[in-house]
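thread: overnight batch results

M.L. [08:02]
morning all. the overnight job finished for the chain we discussed friday. pasting input first so we're all looking at the same thing
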Amino acid sequence: MAKLILASASPRRQELLSTLGVELELMPADIDESSIEAKTPAKMAEAAAYAKARWVTERVSKGIIVAADTIVLLDSGEILGKPQGAEEAYRMLSCLSGRGHRVITGVAVVDPEANKERVFHEVTRVFFRSLSLEEIRKYVATGEPLDKAGAYGIQGKGALLVDKIEGCFFNVVGLPVPKLGEVLLEFGVSLL
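M.L. [08:03]
and the structure it wrote out:
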């Protein structure tokens, strides 16, 4: 099997792939995500993932590169990135309380040796239950929200905030594993 290179420093993405028994080389991409522009949030997530993958392809000539970028999108169209601190995390969680939102993950898979690329995205709808101000304060105090888009981690204590989801759970964690598995088959890589 070709070597997989994960263009991410995300411990959640690493854990998802490692749980499947995938041997990974980690090469976190160093790009300026704020400079990426696109017409839609889905295209923005795809463009950011592709930029990360291209950054890695400029440094390696062999291996299958997997890169991803996750966006949390309110129904109002506001994108919630990673909070810059506890106050912003509190604001984001207050906005999510009692409402639905979309989690969009853009993924790029690139094989520089075969000159093959595939970029796609997955959307999952997440519904939060109504949260008290005290619950939000306690959750923010755990520190868990501070390095996650939308200020929550569904795989951790953030699961307690969620009422239900529609779509791929793993997408909310940061990598739509079932769809990625299908795409990797196109590159001759089986995760089974």
